[in-house]
Amino acid sequence: RTPTLSLVVPTRGRPRQLRRFLHSLAATTLRPSRVEVVFVVDADDPASHAVRCSGLTVRVAVGPPGRTMGELNRAGEA
């Protein structure tokens, strides 16, 4: 199913905050199954690769450290 809303979230080293974000999103969204969250993370940040939340589709776009914000945003679109 194609998501109604995709959120691109560039992040680094904040797995606890990512979990809190996902749980808040799931709790306050009318149809969480129609929301897709794309975490854009660095390859050397494995803790952020594993963050998930039941009811939400989470994709992870992993790449090299040191990318610009524009590069991070584009990586989340793929």
SSE inventory with pairings:
Layout: E1 5-10, H1 15-28, E2 35-42, H2 46-49, E3 57-63, H3 69-77
Parallel strand pairs: 1-2, 2-3
- Shape descriptor reads globular
Strand order of the largest sheet: 1-2-3
Residue fraction in strands: 25-35%
Counting helices, strands and paired strands, the structural category is alpha/beta
Please trace the helix and strand order, writing H or E for each element: EHEHEH
Task: Find the count of extended strands (DSSP E, 2+ residues).
Answer: 3
Helix content: 25-40%
The count of helical stretches stands at 3
Characterization of the model:
By secondary structure, the chain is α/β, with parallel strands linked by helices. The chain is 35% helix and 27% strand. It has 3 helices and 3 strands. α1 links the parallel β1 and β2. The two termini are 17 Å apart.
